[in-house]
Amino acid sequence: MSAFKDISPYLSREFHFTELEIARIRYVVISFLSETSKLAFLFTAFSLMNRQKELLAAILVLLSIRNFTGGIHLSHYLSCLLFTFSFLLGAVGLSELCFPPLWIQILCLAAGIPVIAIIGPVSSDRRPAPSPKKSNIFRIIACMVLLVYILLLLNVRYLPFRNLIFWVSILQILQLVAAKLIKVERKKYHEKIHKNIPV
Fold first, then answer.
1. Residue 98 and residue 87: Cα distance in Å, rounded?
2. Of 35, 72, 100, 194, which one is least surrounded by beta carbons within 10 A?
3. What separation in angstroms does the CA of 193 have from each of 75, 106, 126, 189?
4. Which CA distances in Å does 147 have to 127, 168, 194?
5. How far apart are CA 41 and CA 49, in angstroms?
6. Residuewise pLDDT in 10s, the chain (199 residues)
7. What's the CA dihedral at 53, 59, 62, 67 to 10 degrees?
8. 3-class SS at 122?
9. Bridge partner list, 122
10. Residue 121: cis peptide before it, omega within 30 degrees of 0
11. Using CB atoms within 10 A of its CB, is residue 120 exposed (0-12), middle (13-18) or buried (19+)?
């Protein structure tokens, strides 16, 4: 983003933005370009497999839960892209190959509600953790979303992408558990390092 650095003096001079405001604008621009390019890659890849509709449905279900629970956060663009691609491809693949009975799906999703309520949300180490009040709100929303999916599976017999909804939800819950374990282990490691640093 060297081009953005070049216009930073202009933004400061013409619009009287502070360094913090310019940094925030830069973050928004980089995030937008990063996410847009990832979506373009994903859509191209899934189009080659003729799975565009499945991709869009999977993304919608994933965002409806992940936005409120968090999950595994990777620091590099390529690793994040590959992880997202693998996650969505795995969900679509499982939805087409594995069809658990309805009662198992409902049982698994119902078990996911207390999991989310206990360990969610898991935020990125690069961002400030949400306040306890916001965390509680996020937990409630995520649990309600999962409850809505359970009710849809129970009551809508010909629900489009019903198996995909199940697998995306389950994989996101498993990802949340993995993210929490990684965060706990990372915290223990840093505490151990600090204890061994001589004063």
1. 16
2. 194
3. 21, 43, 20, 6
4. 28, 14, 42
5. 13
6. 444 455 666 556 656 667 777 777 777 777 788 889 999 999 999 999 999 999 999 999 999 999 999 988 887 889 999 999 999 999 999 999 999 999 999 999 999 999 999 998 988 777 777 888 999 999 999 999 999 999 999 999 889 999 999 999 999 999 999 999 988 887 776 667 766 655 4
7. -150
8. strand
9. 70
10. yes
11. buried
* Tokens matching residue 13: 């001079």
- AA letter at 49: M
Structure token digits, residue 169: 């939800």
pTM for the whole structure = 0.83
Tokens for 48? 């080659």
- Which tokens sit at 78? 């390529």
Closest CA to 172 of 45, 104, 76, 84: 84
Per the structure block, which two tokens stand in for 183?
A: 């965060």
The position carrying tokens 């989310």 is 116
Residue 192: both structure tokens together: 């151990």
